[in-house]
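For concreteness, we quote verbatim a single protein encoded this way:
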Amino acid sequence: MSPDDIDRFFARLAEKNPEPRSELDSVNSYTLLVAVVLSAQATDVGVNRATQHLFSSVRTPDEMLALGEVKLRESIKTIGLFNTKAKNIIKLSEILLRDHKGMVPEDRNALEALPGVGRKTANVVLNVAFGHPTIAVDTHIFRVANRTGMAPGATPAAVETKLEAVVPDHWKQHAHHWLILHGRYICKARSPSCSICQVSDICAFSEKTTISHSGRSKE
């Protein structure tokens, strides 16, 4: 995909959705951090369902510690890996209180030092909570970057490096969300909706789906 194609790609996504937002519910940077930790190997819908009640009373690290690990596990038991995630959230809450005055640090190294927080989670927090132009490569972004030819790579790290290099600076602030939403709702894994995709003519995917006379999607 050429630089001009990439610019047009994001311009079209921006035209449809000028101010994309994370679909994870949160009320502050701490609840965002918790939600992103919970979202590993889980859907945003599932996480939001679990945190709806949790975040009504727990919005700070000290409130999380007051809740305790047992009650936290009960609140998030519908989410995959909930036992490990509960332990990590309690531990990171302790660290935030001990080392960061209860605040979520605006620093990649400090974020990645927290239990359950890797590069992808740190990138989401830096982007959503603090406005950094970071790109967190999840399964959706990995697929879209490879399928479209925008930033092909064998690993999330390789894709992130390429996206950082090819996405124009004026699109980087929201590129993370545009790519995730495009992958989640249009450029889906098993049945991409190429026939209604606003960037289909730019995309390098060689097996674009079309709509047959029966109304069914086919390749």
Notes: The two ends are 22 Å apart (CA to CA). Residues 82-99 form the longest helix (18 residues). Strands lie at 210-211, 217-218.
